[in-house]
Prior knowledge:
With 144 residues, this protein is α/β, with parallel strands linked by helices. The chain has helices at 19-22, 27-37, 51-63, 76-79, 81-90, 128-139, and strands at residues 2-7, 42-47, 68-72, 93-98, 120-123.
Amino acid sequence: MVIGVVNGPNLGRLGRRQPDIYGRTSLSDIEASLRGAFPDVEFRFFQSNHEGLIIDTLEGWSDQGVRRIVINPGALTHQSYALRDAIEGLDLMVVEVHLSNIYRREPFRAHSLIAPVAVGQISGLGVMGYHLAVRYLLTASPEL
Ligand code: DQA
């Protein structure tokens, strides 16, 4: 099974960026840990600070038949109608992940534009959130 893992703006600096909030694990370490934990999954990984490139990537993956997506949209979560529309329009099965608990931080983070078009959301469980999202997508039925 193919699973796409997308990380949005500023997540390329994980490990160095506000480690008290986001932890000390780098994004490449997260990706390696996913490959290690799920050797049978064919992962596609993508990180960008650019909204349009993320949407282009989701379109490309969708055209290739990749429908199961783990996404941490970073701050696009709270501001991107374009990303929301892409996920809805491409009919992707998305699990939204946040390393931090977006509901116990600044008020603007408590609203996700992505959640209504996601299957579910995992927030505040750190790196484990990515692993749990993959576990879910492996068992979810394709018609979801
Ligand atoms: C984040 C939470 C967002 O509010 C923030 O903009 C991020 C990271 C998280 O993983 O906790 O960049 O998505």
